[in-house]
Design brief:
The complex is a heterodimer of chains A (about 290) and B (about 400). Chain A has about 290 residues and is mainly α. Chain A has 13 helices and no strands. With about 400 residues, chain B is mainly alpha-helical. In chain B, α1 packs antiparallel against α13, α3 packs parallel to α7 and α4 packs parallel to α6. The longest helix of chain B is centred in the N-terminal third of the chain and has 40 residues. Chain B is globular. The termini of chain B are far apart. The chains are: A mainly alpha (about 290), B mainly alpha (about 400). Chains A and B meet through α4, α11 and α13 of A and α5, α6, α11 and α13 of B.
Chain lengths: ~290, ~400
C-alpha cells in the first residue's frame, strides 16, 4: 500500500509541477499548450548543467533557466507581438523537440540519449524505493509548488491581477492593472514551473532521452482543464491520473486491461469535462485573447 | 468615379493584398535562414555548402525531387484540412490522428475487399474509406463544439492521443503481421508510382496520389469561393454572430466543417497506404498532421498557397536528410518551428505597418481597413474563440 502511494507520488510529481505552471498561465489568459515544450527544454538543460558541473543542483538551475528562456520567447511572440497563441504554442513544442535533438547530437554525439549524469536518488528508485523517493528534494518541491500557486492566486495582489487579466483584461486595464506585464510574469512563472517537471524527470532517471517527456505536458494540461483551473481540484486530478498509471504498471502482468486504454483515461476525462456531462469545465473568459 | 480611377484603385488593392501575403513568409524565411546559419556554424560547417547540398539533394536529382513530391502530397492534404478549419474559425490540431485514421480505414477496407476486385474500383473504395475514416474522427470535435461549446483545440489535441492509442491497440492486438507494427499488404487498389512512368522520379515514393491532392485543392478552392456552403463557412469564420444573424446555422457549419477537415486529412493516408507501402503502419504520419498547421499558416489558408507551402516544407524535410552527414537533420525541425513563429508574429505586424503607411499615403480614406489591435475576427486566424 505504501509502495503504491509512493509510486503514485513519483509519477504525479511532474504533473504537479507542469499543471501548476499551466494554471498560472491559463488563469492569466495565455493558453498553456507549451507545457510539453518547456518540460523538454528543462529536462535537457538540467542534464547539460549536471553533466558539465557534476552537481544536480546546478542542473536544477540550468533547467529552470532553459525553461524560462523558452517561456520568454513564447511571451514575446504572443504578448508583445500578439501572435496567435495556439499557433505559437504548437511551434514552441516543435522547437523544443528540434533544439534538444540538435544539441543532443552536438553535445553528446548521440541521437537517442545523454550519458549518465549526477541526479537525485539511485537505481533503487527505479524499483520503487520508498526512501529514495522521499529523499528527493524535487518531490517535496513539487507538492510545495502547487500549494504556492494556490496561495499566490487567491491570497496575493498579484494573484488577483492574474485572475483579472484572464477574465476581464479590459476592466483590469481600466483600473490600472498592467495586463501585459502581468501576463509576461505569469508566462515566465509557468515556464519555471513546467521546466521543473522536466528537471525532475531527467535527474530522477540520471539522463536525457529523446522525447523523454512523452506527452506528460499534455496530461498536465488535461489535469488543469479537468480540475477546472483550481489548484486543489487540479492536484486531485494529477493524483488521479498518476494513480491510474500506477495501477496499470502494477497490474501489467495480469493483462486485465490493455495499456493503451489506461493511457487514454486523462484525455477521455478531459473531453467529457469539456462537453459538460458532469459539471461543465468553463475556462477563463479571456483565455487566448490578446490585449494592448 | 472614372473608369481609370476605379482600375487604379483595384490595382492598388491587389498590390496591398499581395504585399500582405508575400511579405510575412519572406520575413520568416529570412529569420529562419539566419537561425540556420547560426546552427550550422555552431556545428562547425559552412552555411553555403550545407544550403547547396540541401538544394541539390531535393530539387537537384530524381530521387530527391520525387521524395519532395511525395512528402508534399501528404502535406497538401493536411494543410488543406487545417486551412479549411481556419476559414471557418476553427482550429483543427487533430490532423495527425485524422491522417492515421484515414490510412487505417483505407488499409482495413482494402484488406476486406474480395479477391479479384477490379483495381480502379478497389482504389476508389479505399479512397472513400480514407476520407470517411478521417471524417469520423474530425466530426467529434465539430459536434462537441456545436453542441456544448467545447474548444476544438483541446478536443482535437486530446483526440490525437486517444485515436492513436486506439489504432495502436487494434493493430498490435489483431491486425499486425507477426514481429512488425503493420498490417499485411492490400491485394488490390494500389496506385501507380510515378517512377514507373518517368525517370524524372526514379526510385522515389511519389505516386498518383499527387494528382488526387491537386484535384482536392481545386475542389476546396471551388467549394470555398464558388459555392453557397463555402460562403457560409467563410462568413462564420469572419463573424459568427453576424452570420448567425444573417440566417446561417453556425453550429451546423462548425460540425460540417470539422467533418470535412477531418476527411481532407484522412485522404492524406491514401498517399502512404495505396501509393507507397500498401499497408497501414503505426506512426506512418510522422508529424505530417502537425506540419499541416505550418503549411496552412504559410499558405495563408488559400488552396494555392497551401500547395506552394507544402512544397516548401517538403523540401525542408527532405533537405534535412540530404544534409544529415554535415549537420543533424533536426536542424530543419528547428527551422520549421522558427518559420511558424516568425510568420505568426509577422502577419499582424506587417498588416499594421501596411495599414499605417496606407493612412499616410492617402489621409482620409485610410480607414478602409482598421488597424487590428487584437486578433479579433478579421485577423489572419479568425479564431477569437480559441477558448477551452
Amino acid at each position: 500500500m505504501i509502495g503504491f502511494l509512493v509510486q503514485t507520488l513519483r509519477i504525479a510529481v511532474p504533473y504537479l509541477f507542469a499543471a501548476a505552471g499551466g494554471i498560472v498561465s491559463e488563469r492569466a489568459g495565455i493558453i498553456a499548450l507549451t507545457l510539453e515544450g518547456f518540460m523538454l527544454t528543462g529536462a535537457f538543460c538540467a542534464v547539460l548543467g549536471s553533466f558539465y558541473s557534476g552537481s544536480p543542483w546546478v542542473g536544477i538551475i540550468a533547467g529552470v533557466g532553459g525553461g524560462l528562456l523558452a517561456a520568454l520567447l513564447h511571451a514575446l511572440a504572443t504578448i508583445r507581438y500578439r501572435a496567435d497563441q495556439v499557433v505559437v504554442g504548437i511551434a514552441m513544442n516543435l522547437l523544443a523537440v528540434g533544439v534538444t535533438r540538435f544539441f543532443l547530437r552536438l553535445a553528446f554525439d548521440s541521437s537517442s540519449n545523454s550519458p549518465r549524469v549526477p541526479g537525485f536518488g539511485g537505481a533503487e528508485v527505479a524499483s520503487g524505493g520508498v526512501l529514495a523517493t522521499l529523499a528527493n528534494p524535487l518531490v517535496w518541491l513539487g507538492i510545495l509548488t502547487m500549494a504556492a500557486v494556490g496561495w499566490l492566486l487567491y491570497r496575493t495582489p498579484f494573484g488577483l491581477r492574474v485572475r483579472a487579466a484572464g477574465e476581464k483584461p479590459e476592466a483590469a486595464l481600466s483600473v490600472g492593472v498592467p495586463v501585459r506585464r502581468v501576463r509576461w510574469a505569469a508566462v515566465a512563472l509557468s515556464g519555471i514551473c513546467a521546466s521543473l517537471a522536466g528537471v525532475y524527470l531527467a535527474l530522477d532517471q540520471h539522463q536525457f532521452t529523446d522525447g523523454m517527456t512523452a506527452g506528460r505536458g499534455f496530461i498536465a494540461l488535461a489535469a488543469v482543464i479537468f480540475g477546472k483551473w483550481d489548484p486543489t481540484r487540479v492536484t486531485i486530478a494529477c493524483l488521479l491520473f498518476a494513480a491510474a498509471e500506477t495501477m496499470q504498471i502494477r497490474l501489467q502482468a495480469l493483462q486485465l486491461v490493455p495499456s493503451q486504454f489506461v493511457e487514454m483515461i486523462p484525455y477521455v476525462l478531459t473531453i467529457v469535462a469539456l462537453a459538460g456531462v458532469v459539471g461543465r469545465a468553463v475556462p477563463p473568459a479571456a483565455l487566448g485573447k490578446a490585449t494592448d | 468615379m472614372s473608369v481609370d480611377a476605379a482600375t487604379a484603385e483595384r490595382r492598388q488593392r491587389w498590390r496591398e493584398r499581395i504585399e500582405e501575403s508575400i511579405l510575412p513568409p519572406l520575413v520568416a524565411l529570412a529569420i529562419a535562414a539566419v537561425v540556420g546559419d547560426v546552427l550550422i556554424i555552431t556545428f562547425g560547417q559552412a552555411p553555403g555548402e550545407v544550403y547547396r547540398q540541401l538544394l541539390e539533394g531535393t530539387w537537384g536529382n530524381a530521387y530527391g525531387f520525387g521524395q519532395v513530391i511525395y512528402k508534399a502530397t501528404t502535406l497538401t492534404f493536411t494543410g488543406l484540412a487545417v486551412a479549411l478549419g481556419i476559414r471557418a474559425g476553427l482550429f483543427n490540431i487533430g490532423a495527425e490522428s485524422q491522417l492515421a485514421a484515414g490510412g487505417f480505414a483505407a488499409a482495413v477496407i482494402g484488406l476486406a475487399l474480395p479477391a479479384g476486385t477490379p483495381g480502379l474500383l478497389a482504389a476508389i473504395i479505399c479512397i472513400v474509406a480514407a476520407g470517411a475514416g478521417g471524417g469520423v474522427v474530425g466530426s467529434v470535435p465539430g459536434v462537441l463544439r456545436a453542441r456544448f461549446g467545447a474548444s476544438e483545440v483541446i478536443v482535437t489535441i486530446m483526440l490525437n492521443f486517444i485515436v492513436l492509442a486506439l489504432l495502436n491497440y487494434v493493430v498490435a492486438a489483431h491486425l499486425a503481421v507477426a514481429e512488425t507494427l503493420h498490417t499485411s499488404e492490400i491485394p488490390a487498389g494500389r496506385l501507380a508510382r510515378l517512377a514507373d512512368m518517368s525517370p524524372m522520379f526514379a526510385g522515389s515514393a511519389a505516386n498518383m496520389t499527387v494528382l488526387l491532392a491537386l484535384l482536392t485543392a481545386g475542389i476546396v478552392w471551388w467549394y470555398l469561393f464558388r459555392t453557397r456552403g463555402g460562403y457560409e463557412l467563410r462568413a462564420v469564420g469572419l463573424q459568427p454572430d453576424a452570420a448567425e444573424y444573417g440566417g446561417v446555422r453556425v453550429g451546423s457549419v462548425w460540425a460540417k466543417t470539422m467533418m470535412l477537415s477531418g476527411a481532407l486529412a484522412g485522404l492524406g493516408g491514401v498517399n502512404y497506404v495505396l501509393g507507397y507501402k500498401h499497408y497501414y503502419e503505426e506512426g506512418f504520419g510522422a508529424g505530417s498532421g502537425f506540419l499541416g498547421i505550418a503549411v496552412a499558416l504559410v499558405g495563408r489558408n488559400h488552396p494555392v498557397g497551401v500547395v506552394i507551402a507544402a512544397l516548401l516544407f517538403a523540401t525542408l524535410s527532405q533537405g534535412g536528410l540530404a544534409v544529415n552527414a554535415l549537420v543533424p537533420k533536426q536542424m530543419v525541425d528547428v527551422l520549421t518551428a522558427i518559420v511558424i513563429i516568425a510568420v505568426a508574429t509577422a502577419v499582424p505586424e506587417v498588416r499594421r505597418a501596411l495599414a499605417a503607411s496606407r493612412r499616410r499615403r492617402e489621409p482620409g480614406t485610410g480607414n478602409r481597413e482598421p488597424v487590428i489591435v487584437s486578433p479579433g475576427p478579421s485577423s489572419q486566424f479568425p479564431v477569437p474563440t480559441s477558448q477551452q
